[in-house]
């Protein structure tokens, strides 16, 4: 019963990936001079990336959003660059596979939605920087 | 450069999902009487699910593999049933989004590949139970 129309329903994950690549594409088309974002700090609270508490400028966020988009579009892990988490994740390995599956799928949706929002925010911030926002 | 041929390359994640649903479909077609798996414990070391250290029988694994397949095919989170991890994951929230993205994507590939193997193993175990393996 639950598995009816698998192809249509599968589009939900694809749609999330597609929304992200679309947001980054729009960001790229808008931001003609990415270097103008150098040394521009994120604003709080409206910038979604401001919560991370690091010192990246908006140019670095721009590069990060494009980098993630490339991975989304390739559908592959970066071969030699799997960024390790320093978190104590031994407990994850003890989880049953179904829990682990839900955890990573939920996490992937969540991070992709956040990155999509970040792409929109970065696009808007660029327009402010070049004086187009008012 | 890296984002060339996005649609072809995107099939990699789709292919992983597809391999899993295919393995479960084959399992379902083979296992005509799932109840024969009740009270049959996993074997070590060849059964991938044996490492989890719990007391599930193969029938419960059969149901779990089908349950995950339904979520894969729907592409959605289970609405009221997001299984919480008891792991201390606060550190994850402090990770930068790119690291988090790689973490969840790598994790999703890994758990799907493990579940695919489990589906094959469970299919083989059923054949043993009904005396078809020799």
UniProtKB/TrEMBL annotation, chains A, B:
Q: Supply the Gene3D superfamilies for this chain.
A: 6.10.140.1610
Its predominant location is: cytoplasm
Localization of this protein = Cytoplasm; Nucleus
Q: Keywords of this protein's UniProt record, alphabetized?
A: Cytoplasm, Nucleus
Q: Which InterPro entries does this UniProt record tie to the protein?
A: Lipogen_MT_Stabilize_sf (IPR053719), Spot_14 (IPR009786)
Recorded superkingdom:
Eukaryota
The similarity annotation says:
Belongs to the SPOT14 family.
PANTHER family assigned: SIMILAR TO VERTEBRATE MID1 INTERACTING-LIKE PROTEIN, SPOT14 FAMILY MEMBER
The protein's name is Mid1-interacting protein 1-B-like
- Which organism is this protein's natural source? Huso huso
């Amino acid at each position: 019963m639950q598995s009816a129309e698998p192809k249509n329903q599968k589009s939900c994950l694809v749609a999330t990936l597609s929304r992200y690549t679309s947001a980054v594409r729009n960001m790229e088309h808008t931001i003609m001079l990415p270097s103008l974002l150098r040394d521009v700090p994120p604003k709080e609270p409206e910038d979604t990336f401001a919560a991370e508490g690091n010192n990246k400028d908006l140019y670095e966020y721009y590069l990060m959003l494009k980098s993630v988009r490339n991975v989304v579009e390739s559908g592959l892990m970066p071969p030699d660059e799997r960024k390790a988490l320093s978190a104590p994740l031994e407990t994850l390995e003890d989880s049953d596979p179904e829990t682990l599956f839900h955890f990573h799928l939920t996490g992937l949706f969540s991070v992709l939605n956040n990155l999509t929002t970040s792409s929109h925010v970065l696009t808007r911030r660029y327009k402010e920087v070049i004086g187009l926002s008012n």
